[in-house]
Amino acid sequence: MPRKRSLQPRLAAKPSMENKSIGVGLMGIGVIGGQVATVLTERANMLSENACCPVVLRKIKVIESDLDRPQARAMPASLLTTDEDEFFNTPGLDIIVEVIGGEHPAFEYQKRALKAGKHVVTANKEVIAKHGAELLELAAQNGVSIRYEASVGGGIPLVAPFQRDLIANKINGIYAIINGTTNFILSTMAREGTEFATALSQAQKLGYAEANPRNDLEGIDASYKIAILATLAFRSRVRPEQVFHEGISRLSRRDFQYARELGFAIKLLAIAKQTGSEIEVRVHPVFLPADSFLAKVDGVYNAVLVDGDLTGQVTFTGKGAGALPTSSAVAADVVECARFLASGRTSPVWQAGEIKTIKPMSQVVTRYYIRMGIADQPGVLAQIAYALGANNIGIASVIQKETASDQTAEIVIMTYPAREEAMQAAFADFKKLPVVKEVHNFVRVEV
Ligand code: HSE
């Protein structure tokens, strides 16, 4: 009789003393670092079983002012050092986890680790977006890997799916809500009818927005993240400075009122899509059909919709920030590095393919919502329609409400698809029209 084969997948051998332990060095013991340290120590057995070797947190690089933090105090003092050289020279460090954030000195620390032949795991979107190509090259030269799942979308799996599960697809587009702070503010404005400043201070009180929230509000944070995703999706290096970004601070409660009336929601969307032989990569507020999936993603939640030619639309959603979700992604990357180390294999190197041209924003085509204040007198609409028509922009609909007469009326125009440069030319023409008091706002429409 042949021996019955187990239906259980062949799980890795339990880590044993025979397997060399893999040492982890952690850089940063802030809110994220503290949680990463907790997961690496409290779940050491589970992580080690999955890594097929013992995974041990061996050293933590902190700064002087962190030593009094509860999360630093919770760690054995022998694990902590403020000395960079002592940290890097700790025997048996195989994987360096960088969660200090910011561009410098995080970038230099990552380079030092890779040059020393150590694998790197990072949650740092700024460093990966700006210097990912150089770091990947350095990792390849030194036979190690750099992993960055936590850099986009916190605990939502995004980097690994692009590197693995979606690899057979040609990606048509990515449409993403990848900044929780702005999504919270926009959801609050939509729900409570508040102005931007009130919603921002609410977000700050709840700890969702930083004291200096510029990077979030101006779409810079989202531009780092979409640069990372677009680079993976299109296998073509996209630098953050190539990403057009526009923030949310111009939006007012009036825009939300009109959006609702017209059947739209307003979201800050990061978009990367293939149009012909070029790719578009941009971050700005958009009008989205109110019944669409992304329109219903509210609060601090993130959501990423990927349109693959084989998969069709795939959506990823969850908490895009915070210590617990981020620690989940970091720990998974540590296990992945440890698996390679334990197996003796080298990590596959991700490589960009042919560099694709990024379409200049001036050539992007969308529909537009325009809200403007105009003189309330005969013939005004004709002048505005003429200015739009002269720039080859068609009007899809117009709303004008009767106003208590201060001689100014507010109108809202929805256009047909128009090129951005044509729209900007029309705005310049509006400035020359005495009947146009002010263009209060315009928002691009994605349908
Ligand atoms: N500030 C980011 C956000 C979180 O609001 O989504 C970290 O990426």
Describe the structure.
- With 447 residues, the chain is α/β, with parallel strands linked by helices.
- The chain has three domains: 22-154 and 323-343, NAD(P)-binding Rossmann-like Domain (Rossmann fold); 159-319, Dihydrodipicolinate Reductase, domain 2, CATH 3.30.360.10; 363-445, Alpha-Beta Plaits (2-Layer Sandwich), CATH 3.30.70.
- Helices cover 35% and strands 25% of the residues.
- It has 15 helices and 18 strands.
- Helix 3 (70-73) links the parallel strand 2 and strand 3.
- Helix 2 (44-51) crosses helix 13 (323-343), helix 6 runs parallel beside helix 11 (220-234) and helix 8 packs across helix 9.
- The chain is elongated, with a radius of gyration of 25 Å.
- The model is unreliable at 1-17 (pLDDT under 50).
- The structure holds L-homoserine.
- L-homoserine binds at residues 179-181, 216, 221, 320-321.
